[in-house]
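Handout, page 2. Input:
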Amino acid sequence: MKSWKYLLMTTMVGSALALAACGDDSDTETTEETPTEETAGETGTETETPAAEEAAIEGSVSGDGSSTVAPITEALVEEYAGVQGKVQVTVGVSGTGGGFEKFIAGETDFSNASRPIKDEEKAALADAGIDFTEFQLANDGLTVVVSQENDWVEDLTVEDLKKLWIEDGTTKKWSDINPEWPAEEVVFYSPGTDSGTYDYFDEVILDGEDLAKSATLSEDDNVLVQGVQADKNAIAFFGYAYYLANQDTLKAVKIGGVEPNNETIESGEYSPLSRPLFVYAKNSALSENPAFYDFMKYTLENAGEMAEAVGYVSLPAEKYEEGLSTLEGLK
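Output:
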């Protein structure tokens, strides 16, 4: 699942994220003392210890969770490796719900989520003695897509989405939405039930009703992308970044006349499918594992730029500053 890399390469300019690991460039004071073998160079002056070496951190960090958040985190992990090469960060993609299961079991330091944590998940964490902190990383517009070969669907209302996606015992056809559209059976692709994207769609579109039983479900958004690419009668929904990475073969459907883009997602005009993206961090790991604290600090310092690079919408700068202030208090 590396489709984000191609978009990342075209949108990042000069890898401006190689920030703060370079240290202080100021000259070292010279002294009149005779240098020792450890400090003497060929010229007889003290040898500087590079600040980057002094700041080097070793350790491991583990996370899991949302496939929607994964492009941001995977890109951050790759960039972070150039700053702290001795820190091993591993990130799984089990979906938001699956990620929380591992977080509750104490298997991970952080959990990516494309929806807020549920009350029952909070209770399970409390029972397990795990304190956590929520950090928002970016905003997303859950995007409804059809194939570029679909030349009839341009715009759907929320009621149209309900009629299409809610199971009612009938075979859904495009002509059920508009009699001028083909009398062809609709082919559905959906994130799996462990996905926060599914949960969000369930909340704002399905209203707790069953999803169309004929739908193909997958926790891997690329499976959904490929399904729609291959069938002009297919429809799917997933994070905005996956649409952008495949916009040559997919068409984003307007919802109530509003298309998903950075402006409509940030403003909330793209409603009700605009949503926040989160990472949940284990407090004890932040205080006990310097590698994890450093990775989270790097994440919050760079999440805005990286979110935009992979196709999501960054938060206002002050939101990241608030996150960094909260993080500092957990050290």
